[in-house]
Amino acid sequence: MSHTITAQQAEEFITRVYVGLGMPAADAKIIAELMVTADLSGADGHGIFRLPQYSKRIVEGGINLHPQMKLLKDAPSIALLHGDNAMGHLIMHRCTELAIEKAKKNGIGWVGCCYGNHAGAGSMYTNLVAEAGLVGMYLAVGSANHMAPWGGIDMLLSTNPIAISVPMGAGKPPVLLDMATTVAAYGKVKMKAQQGEEMPVGWMIDKQGNPLTDPNRSHEGMLVPIGEYKGYGLSLMIALLAGCMNGAAVGSELVDFNADSKAVTNTGQTIVAINPDFLGGTEHLVQDATRLVTEIKGSQKLPGVSEIRVPGDGIAKSKAKRTAAGIPIPDNLFKALQETAKLAGVAPLEG
Q1: From which domain of life does this come (predicted)?
Q2: Is CATH 3.30.1370.60 what the domain over 69-182+225-297 is classified as, yes or no?
């Protein structure tokens, strides 16, 4: 059995839970809006699905509900924010605002953070940058190590996602790439486990290199990098840029927030905003990007292929569909959300 709720229902419920757990209402609303944005975009592993886990972490003291975020370094085009162990969404929302502000004034805004937490889908933040008419890039150290260096078995790297957005003009969705550096994000593994489904071959391998398809045994294996050694290399570089450069946790120092709800994770993330007007100009970018995308979508297709898509098409279609028809909530998740409502002492989710 599955349930369907509206975006408004989801946002109100998430806000209600966080306020019930002691979070300031203004902060709860920002986080709820971002989480629902993830659900509308089809990033189900980063939306309301995460509410039970986030709530547990709050209850067990792993999240600071009254942070004093501060800039450790602040220059015209670059800054480093100390998140004071706040909810990752709040930290990255502030970082994104600051990056946009710097880019509009100085051409580029590069803002990193340390002492953060899991912040959901990177597309949420690069989309905010695109909405401001700027090019966006997001880099993050994942919140648990589930990948080994290429050829090894010690898990010292995470899914380390990257997101890039390019604006396509007012009222049009951006070209938006949001991907993990592993074949599947670990959130998808957790969703498979919750729904009682097997993982496809190719997502994970055990420590002998054999395919692992049971998500309940994921602790016995490791995620597979995209493009073999290339995905490993990309994950490592993101760890250096979003982790080491920001003074955040990497490698053996990384805390697995799936297994530990109390420890400070010191998650590192970076958001970059670039102002096209300081280069070839926004008008030229939009015109040329539109021409290129049109050429790509109109190009010849392989037999059996009905459509050539560009990054962001799936997000736009999902947003349109779910805005109209609602957000699907599997039965196991619905039950977990009702338990979360009890934990927070608030009214249950209707649906």
Answers
A1: Bacteria
A2: yes
**314-331: pLDDT as tens digits:** 999 999 999 999 999 999
Structure pTM?
A: 0.95
- State the SS3 of the chain: CEEEECHHHHHHHHHHHHHHCCCCHHHHHHHHHHHHHHHHHCCHHHCHHHHHHHHHHHHCCCCCCCCCCEEEEECCCEEEEECCCCCHHHHHHHHHHHHHHHHHHHCEEEEEEEEECCCCCCHHHHHHHHHCCCEEEEEECCCCCCECCCCCCCCCECCCCEEEEECCCCCCCCEEEEECCECCCHHHHHHHHHCCCCCCCCCEEECCCCEECCHHHHHHEEECECCCHHHHHHHHHHHHHHHHHHCCCCHHHCCCCCCCCCCCCCEEEEEEEECHHHCCCHHHHHHHHHHHHHHHHCCCCCCCCCCCCCCCHHHHHHHHHHHHHCEEEEHHHHHHHHHHHHHHCCCCCCC
List the chain domain ranges.
1-59+313-351, 69-182+225-297
Residue-level pLDDT at 351:
75
Topology at the third CATH level for domain 1-59+313-351: Hypothetical Oxidoreductase Yiak; Chain: A, domain 1 (1.10.1530)
Interval 16-55: pLDDT, tens: 999 999 999 999 999 999 999 999 999 999 999 999 999 9
- Specify the pLDDT at position 27: 98
